[in-house]
């Protein structure tokens, strides 16, 4: 089915405006965390910039499902908190051991490992507070579904499981199936939670949730393939994180297993199928369709 999109649709404008809404909500999201060093460390990473792809996906998905995106803002903020926590923990010496993130020294380099771990923990728990206690106007049964979705995707069946297998595989021969498992969990699970929870806030039916799940799985894997490619082809200044890290850490990546051209082809194909999954929603799907293309065209 061909996607008919309003020719007046200005994606750049949509992206900029939605990012501003998210950035403002993030700025207001942290309350009187004490002591001050904890608040500072949480804000340091949460407000360090970032593309805000995950919260934007959540708001776009809520709109596609017929909801008022403003009702999904606390959930979008929660997701960015979970994502930021995972970046802080990922940069620790016991994990990927990095010193540059979002164009700044990593949280642990500034505040030390202990505060960085605790700032991550506080962001993770704060995320569930945002959904359960700070989401006015959303029916409690919908919020409960979102809490369930986020706890699954952030936990062992998602982020944590993917990260463990990723760490275990460093320096080893890894096949395509294992690589896909790592990325569907480490990166894909949270992207899936963004899209599904936005729709849950709007009370989406099973048919739409199923289509959005296929969409999210496609863009999730494509996102990571592009991440692997950028790690090889870009530089630390543009990426805001250390480039060339995968080779240094002896990680298996899509370009390593499939070659550069095949990897690009695979990412494009995944995005094509992702867009197809939501094409029956026509014009309403335009933001998510454009976001899928943004993921493959990005340079950082
Ligand atoms: C403690 C519950 C719990 C989980 C932590 C550390 C960990 C488990 C998982 C690591 C997950 C991780 C860092 C995956 C990488 C995902 C990825 C490609 C991040 C980069 O995302 P971008 O490009 O970054 O959207 P910005 O900075 O733009 O937000």
Could you explain how this protein is built, in words?
The structure is a single chain. The protein has 300 residues and is mainly α. The chain has helices at residues 11-29, 36-46, 53-64, 73-90, 107-111, 113-133, 140-154, 159-169, 176-201, 206-233, 236-239, 245-248, 254-258, 260-278, 286-297, and strands at 100-101, 104-105. The protein has a two-stranded antiparallel sheet. β1 (100-101) and β2 (104-105) form a beta hairpin. α1 (11-29) packs across α3 and α4 (73-90) runs antiparallel to α6 (113-133). It is globular, with a radius of gyration of 18 Å. The two termini are 31 Å apart. The chain binds geranylgeranyl diphosphate. Residues 50-51, 53, 86-87, 89-90, 95, 102, 124, 154, 159-160, 163, 186-187, 224, 227 line the site of geranylgeranyl diphosphate.
Strand order of the largest sheet: 1-2
Summed over residues and divided by their number, the pLDDT gives a mean of: 94
Give Rg in angstroms. Answer: 18 Å
Total number of strands: 2
User: Helical element count?
Assistant: 15
SSE order? HHHHEEHHHHHHHHHHH
- Which residues sit in consecutive blocks of at least 5 with pLDDT less than 50? 1-5
Structure at a glance:
With 300 residues, the protein is an all-alpha fold. It has 15 helices and two strands.
Summarize this structure as a short list of keywords or feature phrases.
300 residues; mainly alpha; two-stranded antiparallel sheet; 15 helices; 2 strands; globular; disordered N terminus; binds geranylgeranyl diphosphate
């Amino acid at each position: 089915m061909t996607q008919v999109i309003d020719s007046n649709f200005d994606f750049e404008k949509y992206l900029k405006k939605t990012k501003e809404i998210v950035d403002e909500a993030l700025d207001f999201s942290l309350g009187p965390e004490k002591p001050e060093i904890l608040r500072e460390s949480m804000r340091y990473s949460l407000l360090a910039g970032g593309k805000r792809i995950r919260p934007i996906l959540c708001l776009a998905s809520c709109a596609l499902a017929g909801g008022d995106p403003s009702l999904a803002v606390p959930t979008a903020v929660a997701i960015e908190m979970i994502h930021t926590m995972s970046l802080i923990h990922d940069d620790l010496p016991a994990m990927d051991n990095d010193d540059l993130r979002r164009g700044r020294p990593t949280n642990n380099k500034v505040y030390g490992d202990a505060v960085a771990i605790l700032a991550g923990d506080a962001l993770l728990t704060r995320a569930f507070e945002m959904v359960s206690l700070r989401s006015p106007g959303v029916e409690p049964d919908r919020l409960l579904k979102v809490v369930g979705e986020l706890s699954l995707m952030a936990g062992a069946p998602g982020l944590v499981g993917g990260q463990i297998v990723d760490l275990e595989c460093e320096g080893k021969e890894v096949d395509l199936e294992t690589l896909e498992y790592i990325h569907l969990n480490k990166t894909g699970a949270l992207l899936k939670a963004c899209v599904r929870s936005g729709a849950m806030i709007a009370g989406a039916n099973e048919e739409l949730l199923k289509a959005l799940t296929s969409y999210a799985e496609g863009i999730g894997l494509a996102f990571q393939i592009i991440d692997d490619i950028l790690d090889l082809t870009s530089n630390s200044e543009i990426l805001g994180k250390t480039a060339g890290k995968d080779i240094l850490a002896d990680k298996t990546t899509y370009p390593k297993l499939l070659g550069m051209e095949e990897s690009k082809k695979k990412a494009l194909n995944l995005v094509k199928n992702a867009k197809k999954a939501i094409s029956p929603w026509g014009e309403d799907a335009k933001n998510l369709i454009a976001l899928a293309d943004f993921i493959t065209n990005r340079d950082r």
